[in-house]
Structure formats: structure tokens, C-alpha cells
Amino acid sequence: MTVAPTGPRFADGPAAPVLGGVVPPVCTPLTPEMEVDVPSLERLVDHLVGAGVDGLFVLGSTSEVAFLPDAHRRTVLETVVKHVAGQVPVLGGAIDMATLRVIEHGRAAAGAGCDGIVVTAPFYTRTHPAEVEAHLRQVAAAAPVPVFAYDLPVSVHSKLDPAMLLRLAAEGVVAGVKDSSGDEGGLRALLLALRDEGTSGFSVLTGTELTVDSALAMGVHGVVPGLGNVDPKGYVRLYRHCRAGRWAEARAEQERLLRLFGIVDAGAPARMGRGSSALGSFKAALHLRGIIDCPITAPPQIPLDAAETERVRRGLAAAGLL
């Protein structure tokens, strides 16, 4: 399958990237009692799939994976896979501190029916690049589905080595990378090296949702935008404009989304961290749009107050979403 204006799914042939297009990292709606809100999660899935996205990524950073007990993780996996019913691929985050735990999560995700798993470098303890590579190889050897590496140095304090990614891509150990490093020069160098080495069948997805037009022009295959929970149609339009070469329209859509992204700063920095503000703003927006029942985030994150939620409401209105 080739990259098409309507967005690629999993590839049918060896030369195409395995996955691309718009693949939102799905928020995890919670009840006031801190259980997974299954009906709200199903509505959110319908909201995303109905907008024309090309895949879903559950149990990533935007899903609050670091805050969820294992039972919550299983509920999310089972709910989303069952509700999607094969309409789009579903990736499951197998994210934990070390290899044996990650293998366990990966098997659970595959057992629930996920089409692939997403894996970071180990964290908590400092790891040598050789240990990171061994970790990815061991997880991939144990996983019955494709493995996507997740480059997330802000959270795991370890940047994935580009030379390692090239080796793992050439050997077919990993099916792709989600690059949330923010290093766009490094991302471009990786894309160039993949082309120079003739590596095919390897997906490069950007997690930097504010420069998607630039990243697609560089050659990435898709985007994993947290803001895509709030405005999936905007990201689908942006992707299709880029693939069709409508760069002026793409720039205008990207700039509209950039302005909407301002909602992540709704939370007062004197009383909460940026993660609480960003994830709280996404959930507040989904609640204001009538998609989820409750905007609560998992502890110890601090919820938005009424004034902060009003800032989110104004941002939605300005973007034409209310």
C-alpha cells in the first residue's frame, strides 16, 4: 500500500510504510470514582473514527498511561479494540520501566487484539544505549505484533540513537518510530538516512503536532497529535492538504490548530504542572464538546478550575468548535 491522500493503513506490500496518516493518541475518560468511563471512551472512538483518522494509539502519554493501573489498561485495550471492530488499526502502548514488564504489557495488548505495540526506552534507572537496543530487540522478539519505537526523551530521559533505529529498521526488528523528541533536524537526518540506505517498510510518525506540514514536507508518514482528540477533522484536513500538495491550505490549517493548541496553557503554572494543564485542557475540551461525561484526570494531576475551563471554552469557540 502506498501513501495516499486519503491516508494509509497497515501496508500490504514490503516497500510501503507500515502505518501513516493521522493516528491520534486517545485520551482515557475517567469517572469521578477514577474508573475507566467506558461509554465516554466509546463515544470518543466514534468521534475520532468518524472524522476519518487512519489509526488509534491507546495507552500513550495523552492516554495518561503512566497514571493507570494494569486493570484500567486492560479495560482501555479491550474497549477500544472491540468498539473499533477493525475499522482502523489500533496501537497499544506497552510502556513501563523495564523489559519484562514491557513484554507483559505487549502480550496483553496483542491478546486484546491490537495491531501493534508502542515501546519507549527503559526508564527510572539510567540505561546505556546498548541496553536500550537490547530492550527493543527482546520486546520485539517476544511480541506477536509489530513494534513501534517511541522516542520520548522528555519523559524517559533517553534519546533513541538514530544509528540504532537505522539498524533495527533495516533488520525489520521495529516497524516504525513515533518521534516526540522535538528535534526536527534529527528527524530530517533520520529520514534522509533511511532513504540513503534504501530502507523500506518503516513508518516515521511525528508527535510534534504544531509543525505537521513541515514534517510531512520532509517525508514523515504521519502524525500522532494529542490535540487530535479535540479536533480530529482539523488534522485530517491538514494531512490531506499536504498529501495533495495544497501547501497554502495546509499552512492555514496548521496555524489554526496552533492557535487552538493554546488551550494547553489554560492551567495556572503557579498551582499545577504543564502535564496537568495540557491533559486537563484536552479533557475539558472533550467535555465541553459533549464527547465525554467528566473531564477529570488521574491523580496526582490537578484538575482545571472553572476559570481555567472557561479559557478552554474560549479557545474552542475561537477555533469554530463550539
Can you walk me through this structure?
One of its GO terms (molecular function) is 4-hydroxy-tetrahydrodipicolinate synthase activity. Its EC number is 4.3.3.7. This is 4-hydroxy-tetrahydrodipicolinate synthase. The protein is of the alpha/beta class and 322 residues long. It has one domain (21-254): TIM Barrel. Helix content is 44%, strand content 9%. It is built from twelve helices and eight strands. It has an eight-stranded parallel beta sheet with strand order 1-8-7-6-5-4-3-2. Helix 8 (212-218) links the parallel strand 7 (203-206) and strand 8. Helix 1 crosses helix 2. The longest helix is centred in the first third of the chain and has 15 residues, at 70-84. The protein is globular, with a radius of gyration of 18 Å. The model is unreliable at 1-14 (pLDDT under 50).
Question: How would you summarize the topology of this molecule?
Answer:
Blueprint: E1 21-22, H1 38-50, E2 56-58, H2 70-84, E3 90-93, H3 99-112, E4 116-119, H4 129-142, E5 147-151, H5 153-156, H6 162-170, E6 176-179, H7 184-196, E7 203-206, H8 212-218, E8 222-223, H9 232-243, H10 247-260, H11 274-288, H12 306-318
Parallel strand pairs: 1-8, 2-3, 3-4, 4-5, 5-6, 6-7, 7-8
Helix pairs in contact: 1-2, 3-4, 8-9, 9-10, 11-12
